[in-house]
Amino acid sequence: MRSELNEFLRYLQVEKGFSQGTIEAYRLDVERGLIPFLHQRDKFEVGEITKADIRAYLDYLATDRGNCSATRAQKLAAIKSFFNYLVESDGLEVNPAASIRGPRIPEKEPEYLTEEECIRLLETIARKGRPRVRERDMAIAILFLHTGLRVSELTNLKLANVDLERSQIKITRKGNKEQYLHLNGETAGALAGYLANHPQAQNGRFFVGTNGGNLDRGYVYGIVRRYLRLAGIDKGKRGPHILRHTFCTRLHQKGVGPFTIKDLAGHKSLNTTMRYITIENKEQAEALDRLEFGVSFQGGGAKLP
């Protein structure tokens, strides 16, 4: 089964052009999740796998692993893609997962930081950041807040693709699509401050560790979570994505239209962008509701408090 998985991963890279991060996520979902579970059920060949096996795996994820519906849906999507590839490449007659419906994912409004919380976060980095990494951590936070980068886009940012003279960076979006982003004055200043003192990168990456090595996804999550905790900001899952949510929401608050937000954030669908506008509209409605005087209208007349 592992040989089929390796062929599938090569297909994702060569023919589909998926990013390395997406390919790695697919690999982990199948290699470290599904395959060990199937081995426990004495299923070692792809032709032996049935719909019942896939259903049992999803049940295991929910009951034994405690995976939420969104995580289970993501893993099921990876499994379906894997078996679809095997069917299309004549390695399998039928996709055993094809007719399995994914769990319903409850709609969650993305959380974001208020203006005051953003300032508090940056002040915390300035006051409590370790001297060796303070400029780097400040640059990371400001870049997230002012450009809305995904973690993979930040960790893969190349030194050669940061042009402070032109105030722009070139990033690689999902699907290996390249995009130039403008840097405002605060962001350019933060990057310049970091660049003046950062260790020489061994592989051309812009952000590096204290030893010059890569910053991986987990390391960046740890940086953001630490400062959010030190700043006393507790909103759901602390991590870089809340800073991306903040970027999109603040753009809307500043009067930027949804199509521009979509382009700046690199959203594939406008529906994703509209989630942030719905949040803001709800807040506007709540603000107007607070203006009420307490007047009631019953029986055709007004009753004052």
UniProtKB/TrEMBL annotation:
SUPFAM superfamilies: DNA breaking-rejoining enzymes
InterPro entries cross-referenced by the UniProt entry: CB, DNA_brk_join_enz, Integrase-like_cat_sf, Integrase_catalytic, Integrase_recombinase_N, Integrase_SAM-like_N, Tyrosine_recombinase_XerCD
Boundaries of every Tyr recombinase domain copy: 108-289
Entry-linked PROSITE patterns: CB (PS51900), TYR_RECOMBINASE (PS51898)
Coiled coil stretches, renumbered: none
The name this protein goes by in its record: Uncharacterized protein
Keyword DNA-binding annotated: yes
GO molecular-function term, one example from the UniProt record: DNA binding
CDD domains: DNA_BRE_C
Keyword DNA-binding: yes
Organism annotation: marine sediment metagenome
